[in-house]
Design goal:
By secondary structure, this protein is α/β, with parallel strands linked by helices. Helix content is 42%, strand content 18%. The chain contains nine helices and eleven strands. It has helices at 15-23, 43-52, 68-77, 97-108, 137-142, 155-160, 172-183, 211-227, 233-260; strands spanning 2-8, 30-37, 59-63, 83-86, 92-93, 112-115, 117-118, 131-135, 152-154, 186-191, 195-196. The strands form two sheets. The protein has an eight-stranded mixed β-sheet with strand order 3-2-1-4-9-6-10-8, with helices on both faces. Strands 5-11-7 form a three-stranded mixed β-sheet. Helix 2 (43-52) links the parallel strand 2 and strand 3. The termini are far apart.
């Protein structure tokens, strides 16, 4: 069984579509765990209305606002499934996401599997060959390949990593993937793209709008990795420069986009 963890915060306008994409999955052996991270709007009411006429149980957990890391960890603590899938409350899944990923997991004996995203509507008439790629820890240091709504991870493997670092508000997901990659190479479904984002990864609403804080989060993550002796001093210096150049590039692109509006 797959336990689907959905953290939410003031998500009344978006969570309905996220839940629709879950209940429309062709893979049906799952449970839904929603962790409300201190919403002050009517998120809870929207969730209740959604499930009102469905013959489907779900778990709703309310907590004071403590951030997505705490919310996801708490969801896992209450999970009964052998595998954990994460979905953000403003994103949606392709209807075959769980089916495709669980088939690959079972065929290849995987503890971890990610998938790629798109920004536009899914075209269910498109027949796309499955492309699976593997990434090492060193490769992932240079470029983040995994997004939380695309990841399925074996619960035991997640617990062996001690979950998300609750001291981190930015780059906490990449921190977890890198710790996982130290134990084994990580697989990614490159095609088809199995989930949809409704805002740009950088420079849009939500946490991604705080570009400088995200940059500081990446620097903190590198310092953490160096402290744990998973990179040497030369690699640390190079990666700091590399991350800074990426941040400046993103900043310039975002400024240009805003001026064109």
């Amino acid at each position: 069984m797959v336990s689907i963890i959905i953290p939410c915060y003031n998500s009344a306008t978006t969570i309905y579509r996220s839940l629709e994409s879950v209940v429309n999955q062709t893979y049906t052996d799952f449970e839904i765990i929603i962790v409300d991270d201190g919403s002050t709007d009517n998120t809870k009411d929207v969730i209740a209305v959604f499930f009102e006429d469905l013959n489907l149980e779900y778990t709703y957990i309310y907590q004071e606002n403590r951030g997505p890391s705490v919310a996801r960890n708490r969801g896992v603590e209450n999970a009964s499934g052998e595998y954990i899938a994460f979905l953000d409350s403003d994103d949606t899944w392709h209807k075959d996401k769980l089916s495709i990923q669980m088939k690959l997991i079972e065929e290849n004996g995987l503890n971890f599997l990610g998938s790629t995203y798109k920004y536009n509507e899914f075209n269910y008439n498109d027949k796309v060959d499955i492309v699976l790629k593997k990434f090492t820890f060193k490769q992932l240091l240079l470029k983040t390949r995994f997004s939380t709504p695309g990841v399925i991870i074996k619960k035991d493997f997640f617990l062996s990593l001690n979950g998300f670092d609750t001291n981190m508000k930015y780059s906490e997901d990449n921190d977890l993937w890198l710790r996982a990659a130290l134990k084994e190479d990580l697989n990614l479904v490159v095609e088809p793209r199995l989930f949809r984002l409704y805002k740009a990864v950088y420079g849009s609403a939500g946490l991604s709008s705080h570009m400088y804080k995200m940059y500081k989060g990446e620097l903190y993550l590198l310092k953490k990795i160096k402290y744990q002796k998973n990179i040497n001093i030369l690699e640390y210096i190079f990666l700091n420069i590399f991350v800074t150049i990426k941040f400046l590039r993103r900043l310039l692109i975002n400024i240009k986009k805003r001026r064109l509006k």
